[in-house]
Write a structure and sequence with these properties.
There is one protein chain. The chain is an alpha/beta fold and 263 residues long. The protein has eight helices and eleven strands. Strand 4, helix 4 and strand 5 form a beta-alpha-beta unit. It binds nicotinamide-adenine-dinucleotide (NAD).
């Protein structure tokens, strides 16, 4: 595939390496600031020449760029985060055709981790004596806490508890709420406590513990670098070409993992 890279920052460079490693070519790198980009701005002629666009840029740019992709009927993978408020407007652009796939986490390994945590939650909700807790560690520059991925995992734990509740007996099954603050009190049985630690250069560690008086079962995902996100985005682009619709990364992952449903 001939790929136009939109946003040539840290992720744009990773996408380029991942795409070249999978035998694709780069139509152009578009970025208004990056000195090593080919173009400062997207245009229809450029986008029409490409098989697919892969965008990791700024939330403010998502709508205008999506308008260009949809006009050209060029499929687009959007990894940029923080444009929840524009989601409906962008989806509307795809009402009559075209293809766009978006997601806040393109790491295939992270989605495998989510699936494993979901299964662990389901079985531990059926057994007496198990509690669940979570902590995550990220580098000193990260601006938000807990991480979006940590919240997704915690929400998935709650969903698994809710669906296991009928047959459930254990402590895990009783979970109804996520708490992310420092606790100066005893934690309620219905709460899952999610803690965050910031420092150093760690790209991201998420740990979920199922804990009983007898033992601890610990599931951990450790991201080594940004390459996992880039590889996932390129795989998603390969999946998207030839399809029509407004997709989430979970649609692609569900097929990759052979599941009807993922988190
Ligand atoms: N979905 C995922 O898996 C995933 C993973 C990592 C990062 N992200 C997200 O991807 C985005 C980029 O992350 P990054 O670490 O590469 O940031 P970055 O700051 O290194 O790069 C972003 C680049 O986008 C450029 N840009 C700004 N406006 C643009 C426009 N209109 N057209 C093209 N380029 C434009 C900027 O000049 C900058 O070079 C962020 O929103 C980040 O949260 C998503």
């Amino acid at each position: 595939m001939n790929i136009v890279i939109v946003g040539y920052g840290r992720m744009g460079h990773e996408v380029e390496s991942a795409a070249l490693a999978r035998g694709h070519t780069i139509a152009a790198r578009v970025d208004p600031v990056a000195r090593d980009a080919d173009r400062a701005k997207l245009d229809e002629e450029l986008v029409s020449r490409a098989d697919v666009a892969v965008e990791f840029a700024l939330a403010e740019a998502v709508f205008d760029n999506a308008r260009v992709y949809s006009r050209c009927r060029t499929p687009a993978v959007v990894g940029t985060t923080g444009w929840e408020d524009q989601r409906r407007a962008v989806q509307e652009l795809y009402r009559d055709g075209g293809a766009l796939l978006w997601g806040s986490n393109f790491s295939v390994g992270a989605h495998m981790f989510l699936a494993l945590v979901g299964f662990a939650a389901e079985i531990s909700a059926k057994v007496e004596g198990y509690d669940v807790l979570m902590y995550e560690i990220h580098h000193k520059r990260k601006k938000d806490s807990p991480s979006g991925t940590a919240l997704t995992i915690a929400e998935q734990l709650l969903d698994a508890c809710a669906s296991a509740a009928e047959t459930a007996r254990g402590e895990v099954a009783r979970k109804r709420r996520i708490v992310t603050d420092r606790l100066d009190r005893r934690r309620d049985d219905e709460e899952i406590h999610v803690a965050s630690v910031r420092g150093g250069e760690t790209p991201g560690i998420h740990t979920v513990m199922f804990d009983s008086a007898a033992d601890t079962i610990e599931l951990r995902h450790t991201a080594r670098n940004r390459n996992g996100f880039a590889v996932g985005a390129v795989l998603a682009a390969e999946w998207l070409v030839g399809r029509t619709g407004f997709f989430r990364v979970e649609d692609f992952i569900a097929e990759l993992l052979g599941k009807g449903d993922t988190a």
